[in-house]
Amino acid sequence: MIPLMSNAKWRKLFCVIEEAEVSVGRCGIKFLRDDRVFVESTPGGEDLDNEGARDCFVCGPFFFRDIEWMEWPRSYEDSRGPGLKPWVRTQDIEALREAIASAGRFDIESTSEHLRVYGCRTARQKTEHEAAQDRESAGAPSAPVT
Which of 28, 80, 126, 134 is most buried, taking the most CB atoms under 10 A from its CB? Predict the structure, then answer.
């Protein structure tokens, strides 16, 4: 795995999200060496220390170095209880992307359905920057990279 984020960079990401007051309350966290994606609330300043998150999440405490990626869906269902139709909540992933872009260079993947920030990648996975360079060398228009 190729690490893309330090502890300081993860903290910077969460602080930027919190300070920008972007409405993204729900995220998915994928850890290295675990195939599951944990659905969590977006970590905030008081949930974090210098190396990770405290024991206030479904997945328990974790180190930033163990995050493969975090993803914010554009919409998700929020349960209201047995027999009740869930609420469908939306999140402003465009505002999230702008807030992240204003904070520096992060390896992100953005689609119409989600925004994902990578903490590390395998040598076979391409970053958006590398994919844009490949498209340029092949003569195709490049996508904007943040």
Answer: 28
- What lies within 8 Å, CB to CB, of 83 at 6+ separation is none
pLDDT tens per residue, range 81-107:
999 999 999 999 999 999 999 999 999
Domain boundaries defined on the chain: 2-137
- How far is Cα 73 from Cα 80, in angstroms, rounded to an integer? 19
Query: Is residue 118 a contact partner of residue 128, using CB atoms and an 8 Å limit?
Result: no
Q: What does the angle CA 35 – CA 37 – CA 38 come to, to the nearest 5 degrees?
A: 135
59-87 burial code (b ≥16 CB/10 A, e <16): beebebeebbbbbbbbebeeeeeeeeeee
- Low-confidence residues of the chain, pLDDT below 50? 142-146
Place of tokens 């953005």: 110
Tell me the one-letter amino acid at 60: G
